[in-house]
């Protein structure tokens, strides 16, 4: 098999990956660095983030306030030392991306403008209309083009990490265009592969978000952390689950139930519509369960009303919301309230890392949604994730660049034998055309249904027990998967099967963890254990892959300044 | 090996791609392409008119006799028909370029519509001026 | 069985027979399905080998552009009900080499994008990575370039541009629009660096103002206008350099 040598590989070309790539290219152009991504970088799902990016920039704000808001939002599960690093670096990072051309909205005097966001005690969310992720990704991508030393493997699918005795040696990757597997050797790999959204049916996430990085790291022996914490965004557009940004509430939109009441006053009287996402999402479900939701052909919903903002403000601050409503719901928010219900949106958990993106495997790093530092704990505040990409992308890039000169590469022979073992698995699992009976689409549909119904906003022991069993059965069914073709060129049936396998792997961990965590905290809400239980569960969950199945350990939460307290808004 | 910041999968020789031919009749496939080709052809007629004008000017400088014989040619039926055709194409050429000028100069704070309309207004004023001069003469 | 709709989809697989053909699929008609939903249905239920790109399904990632009845469209936001009960022809984006089925090779576009230097260039390089303070920029200054920032690189404009089809060396609408976007950004000082490419023989002067790029752009970037304005800039620059004898 071909071996191509590198110093650092970045898997994933979204916000975190490109930020890491730029950091390395800028600080040490002599390092042989490449971005490997299963899609062209500007297709990455960072592109779909809408509302904004939080950072302390204004005179009335300070780092402690941002940190406290984040910690409280996390339901006290965030590591506070990491949060302090995060808020401090955030200020610098948002200015840096401005210097790289991000068209942030401006104040009258030309300085960067900010808007309100859920759970934030200050107006600290920078934004580029409601296309912030789009602008941020394209600014990063276009800036990355100026580094001639930075290489890219576009539309290459990473199938396995090659780890030799606890040390990273490279990856096995498929060039989808040619249909050929190669060894991409590297002293360090940074996983920036995003979340797991596609394992849910009603999700704001793109088709590419299949938890690849978490599965790669997990199979290679790295622990994945806090996977049970899934964020449901309150405003998913009915039918598709497409995101309607929280900025629509930040700019003054209201939520109404069927009785025409702003129901958030019953749940979060001081923050109203701008309570954190977990709380607003649960409130919507409560309204629907109490019979106060609207009913329609696409199920129950509540209304997000922007009409009082007026056309001018909507066009200035929320143009994408209007575009999305017109294109995907056939209605105009200038004249009608938007039908919404909570949509799976974000994976708080991910590959376990420290503040510099390091995982327990030497040379393996992770950043962005696919990593878990953790600064989001049990619930991420809106607009903290775009900032996270920048902060921890850069930090992971820096720490990998420092690690590489002092590390030795894995031998080519060793890599070949590791790759051969992985190739055998791939051949057996995904490339046996005609043998199996199981349709990938049917397994995926069952997985998504199970996750929606049993590992959704509210969870119960019975439901989670079912979910674990169903997922185990789906994993068995997967071994009989039907592959219809052996074509090499752009075989999306093959990559689709690998993605599905990744999702099944991680879904199992999510459901198992959710069942073990017998408390309600942030995005993890148990009907049978409605209270937070700091005595038993103020810890992170780390899950390792073992031949006997997933093995869960606990990991302490770092608390510096802010003692856990009751979380009320 | 890898091009810097170029996709490595961009080694086009690695896979056989299919290149579609563009038929010579491509401009008949779509209204907008057809109108575009018409605009391109219209420039021939604009040029033709310019040549006619030059011929007339030359004739004028060559004395009355020569001018009158040239004018006789221009008064013939087929020449008048040709001039009508030229006029249509020149009008078409002008109108399309007026529209494009909106695109060129119509950035904020100027709206493209405003630019185009002002073109028409200027055109109208100039035309009235010429007609006035002609009638007066 | 309810109503059905017929899709005529281009097939091409260099591994199989290498023939460029059209395959007909009859699928259930749902009036709220996008073309992309229909393709996903075909792939999941009828033919796992059908190959196309898609990702965000909310018209922002730029992956799913295809020719729908001859016009370049984003298939995630083009609906069956626009065509029903007529048949729908779905082909790979025009003017690009086809890799397989509905997947085209856009590496030419990617290389051209880099050549136009779409990033902030400062005379003092240290400015570019200085994080001590943001540049000031008024809303009025932003208005001069903002429209062209909205390009999602879907390349529909390349599929619509006959000039690109006939002269593949042409830099093309989106790349010029993005070069123009940086030229007009008050934070940028790299206009002269970009001129070499934008005003080259394969640059703006190749454009004959067909205008279809602007018509098909799903984000209203108006690349045609950007090209014409770059022509004006380039002409003015030429004129002044001619007058002053400077390059």
Task: State the main characteristics.
B: 137 residues, mainly alpha, 3 helical TM bundles of succinate and fumarate reductases, 70% helix, C: 247 residues, alpha+beta, Ubiquitin-like (UB roll), Fumarate Reductase Iron-sulfur Protein, Chain B, domain 2, five-stranded mixed sheet, 35% helix, 13% strand, elongated
Overview of the structural elements:
- The complex is a heterotrimer of chains A (569), B (137) and C (247).
- Chain A is an alpha/beta fold and 569 residues long.
- Chain A has 15 helices and 24 strands.
- Chain A has a five-stranded parallel β-sheet, sandwiched between helices.
- In chain A, helix 1 links the parallel strand 2 and strand 3.
- Helix content of chain B is 70%, strand content 0%.
- Chain B is flat, with a radius of gyration of 24 Å.
- The longest helix of chain B is centred in the middle third of the chain and has 31 residues.
- Chain C folds into two domains: 101 residues, Ubiquitin-like (UB roll) (Roll), CATH 3.10.20; 138 residues, Alpha-helical ferredoxin (Fumarate Reductase Iron-sulfur Protein, Chain B, domain 2, Orthogonal Bundle), CATH 1.10.1060.10.
- In chain C, strand 3 and strand 4 form a beta hairpin.
- In chain C, helix 7 packs across helix 10.
- Chain C is elongated.
- Chains in contact: A-B, A-C, B-C.
- Chains A and B meet through strand 7 of A and loops of B.
């Amino acid at each position: 098999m071909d071996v191509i040598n590198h110093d650092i590989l970045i898997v994933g070309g979204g916000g975190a990956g490109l930020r890491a790539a730029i950091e390395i290219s800028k600080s040490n152009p002599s390092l042989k660095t490449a971005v490997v991504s299963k899609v062209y970088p500007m297709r990455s799902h960072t592109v779909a983030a809408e509302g904004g990016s939080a950072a302390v920039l204004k005179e009335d704000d300070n780092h402690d306030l941002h940190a406290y808001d984040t910690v409280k939002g996390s339901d006290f599960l965030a590591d506070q030392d990491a949060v302090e690093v995060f808020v401090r670096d955030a200020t610098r990072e948002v200015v840096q991306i401005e210097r790289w051309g991000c068209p942030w909205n401006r104040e009258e005097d030309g300085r960067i403008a900010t808007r309100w966001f859920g759970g934030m005690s200050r107006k600290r969310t920078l934004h580029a209309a409601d296309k912030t992720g789009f602008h941020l990704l394209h600014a990063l991508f276009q800036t990355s083009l100026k580094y001639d030393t930075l290489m890219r493997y576009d539309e290459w699918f990473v199938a396995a990490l090659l780890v030799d005795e606890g040390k990273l040696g490279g990856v096995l990757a498929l060039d989808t265009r040619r249909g050929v597997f190669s060894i991409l050797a590297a002293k360090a790999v940074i996983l920036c592969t995003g979340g797991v959204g596609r394992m849910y049916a009603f999700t704001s996430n793109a088709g590419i978000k299949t938890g690849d990085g978490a599965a790669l790291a997990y199979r290679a022996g790295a622990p994945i952390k806090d996977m049970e914490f899934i964020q449901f965004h309150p405003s998913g557009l009915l039918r598709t689950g497409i995101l309607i940004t929280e900025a629509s509430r930040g700019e003054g939109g209201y939520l109404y139930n069927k009785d025409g009441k702003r129901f958030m006053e019953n749940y979060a009287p001081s923050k109203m519509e701008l309570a954190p996402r977990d709380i607003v999402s649960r409130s919507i479900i409560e309204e629907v369960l109490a019979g106060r939701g609207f009913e329609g052909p696409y199920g129950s919903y509540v209304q997000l009303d922007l009409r009082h903002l007026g056309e001018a403000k909507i066009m200035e601050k929320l143009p994408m919301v209007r575009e999305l409503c017109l294109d995907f719901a056939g209605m105009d928010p200038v004249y009608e309230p938007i039908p919404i219900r909570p949509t799976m949106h974000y994976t708080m958990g991910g590959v376990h890392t420290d503040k510099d993106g390091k995982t327990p495997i030497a040379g393996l790093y992770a950043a962005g949604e696919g990593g878990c530092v953790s600064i989001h704990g049990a619930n991420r505040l809106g607009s903290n994730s775009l900032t996270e990409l920048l902060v921890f992308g850069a930090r992971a890039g820096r720490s990998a660049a420092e690690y590489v000169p002092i590390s030795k590469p894995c031998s080519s022979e060793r890599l070949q034998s590791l790759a051969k073992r992985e190739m055998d698995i791939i051949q057996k699992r995904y490339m046996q055309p005609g043998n199996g009976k199981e349709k990938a689409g049917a397994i995926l549909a069952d997985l998504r249904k199970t996750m929606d119904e049993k590992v959704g906003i509210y969870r119960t022991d019975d439901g989670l027990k079912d979910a674990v069993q169903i997922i185990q059965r789906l994993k068995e069914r997967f071994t009989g998967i039907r592959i219809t073709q052996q074509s090499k060129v752009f075989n999306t049936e093959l990559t689709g099967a690998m993605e599905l396998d990744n999702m099944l792997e991680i879904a199992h961990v999510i459901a198992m963890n959710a069942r073990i965590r017998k408390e309600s905290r942030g995005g993890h809400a148990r009907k049978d254990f409605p209270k937070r239980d700091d005595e038993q569960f103020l810890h992170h969950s780390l899950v390792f892959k073992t031949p006997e199945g997933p093995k869960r350990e606990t990991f302490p939460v770092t608390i510096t300044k802010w003692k856990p307290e009751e979380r009320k808004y | 090996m890898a091009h810097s910041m170029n996709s490595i999968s961009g080694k086009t020789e690695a896979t056989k791609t299919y290149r579609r031919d563009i038929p010579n009749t491509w401009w008949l496939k779509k209204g907008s392409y057809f109108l575009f080709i018409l605009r391109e052809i219209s420039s021939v007629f604009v040029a033709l008119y310019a040549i006619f004008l030059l011929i007339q000017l030359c004739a004028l400088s060559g004395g009355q006799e020569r001018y009158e014989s040239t004018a006789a040619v221009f008064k013939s039926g087929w020449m008048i028909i040709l001039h009508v055709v030229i006029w249509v194409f020149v009008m078409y050429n002008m109108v399309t370029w007026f529209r494009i000028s909106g695109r060129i100069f119509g950035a904020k704070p100027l709206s493209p519509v405003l630019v185009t309309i002002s073109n028409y207004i200027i055109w109208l004023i100039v035309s009235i001026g010429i007609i006035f001069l002609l009638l007066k003469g | 069985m309810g109503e059905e709709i017929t899709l005529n989809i281009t097939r091409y697989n260099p591994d199989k027979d290498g023939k460029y053909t059209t395959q007909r699929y009859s699928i259930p008609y749902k009036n709220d399905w996008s073309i992309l939903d229909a393709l996903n249905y075909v792939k999941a239920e009828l033919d796992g080998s059908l190959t196309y790109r898609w990702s965000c399904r909310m018209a922002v990632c730029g992956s799913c552009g295809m020719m729908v009845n001859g016009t370049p469209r984003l298939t995630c936001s083009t609906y069956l009900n626009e065509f029903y009960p007529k048949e729908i022809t779905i082909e790979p984006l025009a003017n690009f080499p086809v890799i397989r089925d509905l997947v085209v090779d856009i590496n030419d576009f990617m290389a051209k994008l880099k050549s136009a230097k779409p990033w902030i260039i400062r005379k003092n390089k240290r400015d570019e990575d200085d994080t001590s303070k943001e540049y000031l920029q008024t809303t009025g200054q932003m208005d001069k370039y903002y429209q062209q920032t909205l390009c999602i690189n879907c390349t529909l404009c390349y599929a619509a541009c006959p000039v690109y089809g006939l002269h593949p060396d042409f830099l093309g609408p989106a790349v010029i629009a993005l070069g123009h976007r940086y030229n007009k950004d008050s934070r940028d000082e790299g206009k002269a660096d970009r001129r070499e490419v934008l005003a080259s023989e394969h640059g703006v002067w190749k454009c004959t103002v067909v205008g279809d790029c602007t018509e098909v752009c799903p984000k209203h970037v108006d690349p045609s206008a950007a090209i014409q304005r770059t022509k004006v800039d380039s002409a003015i620059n030429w004129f002044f350099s001619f007058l002053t004898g400077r390059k």
